[in-house]
Amino acid sequence: MIELIQAADDSGARLQAHLADEKDTETLGTTLAGVLSPGLRIWLQGNLGMGKTTLTRGVLRGLGHEGKVKSPTYTLIEPYVVSRLDLYHFDFYRFNSPEEYLDAGLDEYFAGEGVCIVEWPDKALPYLPSPDVEIRLEASENGRFVEIGGNTEAGRTCVIGLVKAFRGANPAPKAI
User: Fold this and answer.
1) Residue 113 three-state SS
2) What number of other Cβ atoms are within 10 A of residue 172's Cβ?
3) CB under 8 Å to 63, separation ≥6 — which residues?
4) Which of 155, 138, 139, 153 is nearest to 43 (CA)?
5) Cβ contacts of residue 35 below 8 Å, gap of 6+?
6) Which of 18, 107, 120, 150 suits 97 as a labelling partner, its CA being 20 to 30 A distant?
7) What gap in Å lies between CA 12 and CA 68, rounded to an integer?
8) Cβ 53 vs Cβ 119: under 8 Å
9) In angstroms, rounded to a whole number, what is the distance separating the alpha carbons of residues 79 and 109?
10) How confident is the chain (176 residues) per 10-residue block, as mean pLDDT?
């Protein structure tokens, strides 16, 4: 079960939670799928093995995708036409320089109505457009700690919707 941790002065556009296992990470993604809107740019931050692809798998499952979901580490992008959205899953881990983002010609994906989920966004800076939503995954004693923040109006709307969805399922978040 996902344990919400909310700061007492939280505006609602930020979510902190403990994810006990892979199932919780996927559940977070499935719930996130329900509050996505076209054109969102989502950055996934975290070391190797923190669950970035697992979270993306949950988003895709929540949008109705039943096929395989793999990290696009070697292909840079995995496009999915699912449900009500086009979703583009990027992984820039193998970039040796940020200019590889420019050479790959990926700007068009970020200018459209598709949802772009990016693993290792720092490898494409300063060329990658800023995120609407930033998700940080870190190891904790018993699983993972996740922090999700909205950086734009669309991102804040998304995160507030996610907080509401979780509060409906778990109405008493732990104050920190």
Assistant:
1) coil
2) 7
3) 33, 36, 80, 82, 83, 84, 85, 87
4) 155
5) 158, 161, 162, 165
6) 150
7) 33
8) yes
9) 10
10) 61 83 93 94 92 92 88 82 87 94 92 94 95 94 91 94 78 41
